[in-house]
Fold this protein.
Amino acid sequence: MERLGCKKVREQIENNLKKRCELFVSKGNRAPSLAVILVGHDPASETYVNNKREACERLGFLHFDYRFDEDVKEEEILELIMELNGRSDVDAILVQLPLPSHIDERKIINSISEKKDVDGFSPYNVGRLMLGEECFIPCTPKGILEILRYYDIPTAGKKAVVIGRSNIVGKPMALLLMQKGIDATVSVLNTKTRDISSYTRDADIIIVATGAPGTLDSSMCRDDAVIIDVGVNRISDSSREKGYRLVGDVDYESFKSTSARLTPVPGGVGLMTVTMLMENTMLAAERRGN
Ligand code: GUN
């Protein structure tokens, strides 16, 4: 088995971004700025939001943090987004998901200006991705393409299987893999798919994004498959200081004696998502045109 660790991938992209930001600022532009909105106190979401702030600090980006209690009214968030949409000192807006059930997630996402929608979740950006036109590409699938590129994994003419059809990962991942220039042949599986192995055992590249540990093991794959594990699941573990450990959606151990190449959890896709958010924020700043 080969571990496709992502620390070096992130380092390379961050170094380039840092230089790009310095050059941008040296030309008299304000540094790129990202506004992050977090509702509630979900520990995983708080960790993600903190990671985003730290990434901004590492790269010299500006950062605005907005936090609301769980019971905040939808209108209050919509008002803030309207304000941020109009502010010339804000290039990018990210609302951390999931939101509490009394808030209409779609309504919130739709209210973000397409020019500042660095998650690429608004209908405008989703539509342009579908058409293969310039847009903000959702960060996790974009990061996965960077991993494939860094490790020289060919995609043209390859069989790719995406397990999971979420708007955040599965659907945009499938669209990207089938785009001209990437040219994979893509199958997208969902919870109702019968006999998952009948798809995965032929696959060159398998992207697993189900949120369910143990979705894929070595008995379901070719010996030389490339496997990208998007899952981040907390499993209780009393031997750990925090009381839990992180596992992906893939049974990593089962691949130990194979020739497969796998991204680990932690240290894999998760590192790339934040880096791609920074790249999208840089792009938003460059496109603002001042
Ligand atoms: N929650 C889990 N993944 C994401 C993401 O990519 N963007 C946002 N905004 N929230 C998330």
In short: The pocket of guanine is lined by residues 94-97, 119, 139-140, 168, 273 (CB under 6 Å). The chain has a mean pLDDT of 97. Residues 76 and 240 are 39 Å apart (CA to CA). The first strand starts at residue 2 and ends at 3.
